């Protein structure tokens, strides 16, 4: 049976990524704050705590971590909170730079694909068989179809 390498982008409105064995992995949205004046991470934390109040701007922060490279990482539960924090830090913190981390698109290898499915119609087949993911057609991209003699990763 052939296999298909597919790239699937999970819709951002989900707060979790469903796993086949029943566990749920919470998505974490992160941003990194650095100082233009090469201040220490403790100074960056003090600036953030003094100028930004998450309850006033209605943004939830899960964690505030100091990284080894002198940066501070802020972790939130959803993308809207990250956007609000980014905007507020840009407005109030003139000496701070903000880098928003992007989520990666996962790639999957699907084995034992029937012969009648090609790379052109794999999107419709995956969408029809998995309606609970609420994916759109443009969120799935089939990369290639591999026959019996093709080996992946070896």
Please describe the structure with a list of short key phrases separated by commas or semicolons:
single chain, 154 residues, alpha+beta, Alpha-Beta Plaits, 2 domains
Report on this structure.
The longest helix is centred in the middle third of the chain and has 14 residues, at 79-92. The protein is elongated. It has four helices and nine strands; from the N terminus they run E-E-E-E-H-H-E-E-H-E-E-H-E. Helices cover 24% and strands 29% of the residues. The chain starts with a strand and ends in an 8-residue tail after the last strand. It has a four-stranded antiparallel sheet with strand order 5-6-4-7. A hairpin with a 5-residue loop joins strand 5 (63-66) and strand 6 (72-76).
């Amino acid at each position: 049976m052939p296999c298909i390498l597919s790239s699937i982008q999970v819709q951002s409105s989900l707060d979790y990524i469903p796993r086949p064995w029943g566990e749920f992995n919470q998505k974490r949205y992160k941003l990194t704050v650095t100082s233009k004046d090469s201040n220490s991470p403790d100074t960056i934390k003090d600036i953030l705590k003094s100028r930004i109040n998450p309850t006033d701007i209605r943004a939830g922060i899960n964690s505030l971590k100091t990284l080894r490279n002198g940066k501070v990482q802020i972790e939130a539960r959803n993308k809207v909170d990250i956007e609000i924090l980014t905007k507020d830090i840009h407005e109030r913190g003139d000496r701070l730079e903000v880098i928003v981390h992007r989520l990666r698109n996962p790639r999957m290898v699907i084995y034992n694909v029937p012969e009648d499915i090609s790379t052109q119609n794999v999107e419709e087949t995956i969408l029809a068989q998995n309606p609970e993911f609420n994916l759109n057609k443009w969120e799935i991209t089939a990369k290639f179809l591999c026959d019996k003699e093709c080996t992946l990763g070896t």
